[in-house]
Recover the amino acids of this structure.
């Protein structure tokens, strides 16, 4: 196949690449007879390169469409002008990689680390017979329908590269350069844009539930009809953005009853098993900084609500629905959250010490239990000392730098959770499912 106009790409087979990988392994380990891989302007489509160590390798102008690079180390490698359509780079290390002018359409980069990678536009020159250089390939990097879910894009240069349909859910784009990127209609739930340059970016009709926009540069950014419910952003940071039709968290003043009346009626609802009173529903309400210490709001709804900086110590929140809740830097110490649904919630830097977030019996005296749902929850830097997480579902949870000293994680599901830098001294992990856990140190 010829991907770069004017250059015939010589085909390389799976058998050939495996021989080259062995030579490269010898080269990398300093053994005699080793040779560094160079794959410039080659047709290597659909090859399997899973878990390969290919640091600082040149893939310039090559056709690599639908190749499998899953969990490979591609640190500082050069993919300038390469065709990476449909590649699988899930969980790969692409720190400082050069992806300028590459085609990443429909590529899977879920969980990949692209910290300080360069994904801007680029072009390739060729020396003609007349001694002059001419452009043989000039493109913006193509990222349409690319999957960057949970990818690390810290400080990455993405100016005008990202296209429509790109998945960035829970990606870390802190300090990334996204000037004039067109993200129209993209799923940006949970994305960290702190300090990112979004000047002139089009985020219209995007879903930004739980996203962090604090400190982002939003000059001339288009946020028309975007949904920023439960997102971290100050009104002053939106002044220079276009926000017509934007959907935000509802202010507490929109509630038809006072907070105290809602609490009282919810108490009656609990006591009467639903016969009297009204179940409390704080969905999409901004309650940041509120004092709810010791209040019983079991089975209440806090979906996409904001409880950042709130005082919630010793509350009763068992079986509460708190999906997508923004509750960073809040105090939930000694709180009962057994059986609660906390999926996708943000408790970064919050205090959950001595909290009970384990399973709950469905019926008094019954052996059947309902586990707490913490799938995809953000607990970076959270205080979880002596917290009960028995049988909790922490699939894909972010527990980086969390304090889990003496926590009870018996039979907890930690599948693909990130525990990088977490303090697990004294933690009980008996029969916990730790398959795919990242960075766990006991």
């Amino acid at each position: 196949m010829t991907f770069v106009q004017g250059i015939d790409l010589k085909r390389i087979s799976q058998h050939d690449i495996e021989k080259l990988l062995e030579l490269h392994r010898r080269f990398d380990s300093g053994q005699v007879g080793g040779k560094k891989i160079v794959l410039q302007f080659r047709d290597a489509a659909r090859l399997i390169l899973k878990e390969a160590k290919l640091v600082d390798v040149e893939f310039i102008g090559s056709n690599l469409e639908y190749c499998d690079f899953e969990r490979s180390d591609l640190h500082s490698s050069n993919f300038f002008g390469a065709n990476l359509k449909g590649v699988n780079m899930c969980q790969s290390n692409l720190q400082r990689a050069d992806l300028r002018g590459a085609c990443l359409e429909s590529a899977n980069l879920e969980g990949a680390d692209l910290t300080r990678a360069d994904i801007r536009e680029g072009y390739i020159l060729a020396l003609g017979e007349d001694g002059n250089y001419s452009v043989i390939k000039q493109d913006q990097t193509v990222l349409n329908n690319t999957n960057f879910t949970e990818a690390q894009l810290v400080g990455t240069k993405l100016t005008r590269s990202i296209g429509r349909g790109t998945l960035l859910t829970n990606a870390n784009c802190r300090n990334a350069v996204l000037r004039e990127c067109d993200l129209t209609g993209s799923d940006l739930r949970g994305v960290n844009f702190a300090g990112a340059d979004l000047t002139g970016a089009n985020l219209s009709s995007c879903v930004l539930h739980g996203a962090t926009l604090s400190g982002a540069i939003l000059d001339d950014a288009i946020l028309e009809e975007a949904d920023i419910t439960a997102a971290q952003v100050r009104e002053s940071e939106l002044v220079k953005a276009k926000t017509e039709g934007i959907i935000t968290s509802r202010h507490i003043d929109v509630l038809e009853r006072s907070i105290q009346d809602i609490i009282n009626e919810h108490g009656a609802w609990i006591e009467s098993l639903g016969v009297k009173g009204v179940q409390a529903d704080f969905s999409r309400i901004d309650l940041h900084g509120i004092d709810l210490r010791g209040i019983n709001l079991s089975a209440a709804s806090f979906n996409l609500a904001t409880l950042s900086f709130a005082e919630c110590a010793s509350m009763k929140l068992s079986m509460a629905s708190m999906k997508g809740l923004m509750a960073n830097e809040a105090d939930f110490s000694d709180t009962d959250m057994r059986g609660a649904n906390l999926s996708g919630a943000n408790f970064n830097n919050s205090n959950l010490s001595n909290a009970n977030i384990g399973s709950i019996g469905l019926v008094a005296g019954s052996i059947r239990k309902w586990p707490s749902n913490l799938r995809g929850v953000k607990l970076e830097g959270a205080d979880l000392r002596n917290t009960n997480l028995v049988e909790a579902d922490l699939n894909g949870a972010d527990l980086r730098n969390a304090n889990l000293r003496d926590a009870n994680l018996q039979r907890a599901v930690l599948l693909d959770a990130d525990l990088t830098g977490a303090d697990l001294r004294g933690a009980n992990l008996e029969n916990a499912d730790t398959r795919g856990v990242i960075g766990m140190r006991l």
Q: What stands out?
A: The beta strands are 10-11, 42-43, 122-127, 133-139, 250-251, 285-286, 360-361, 369-370. The radius of gyration is 25 Å.
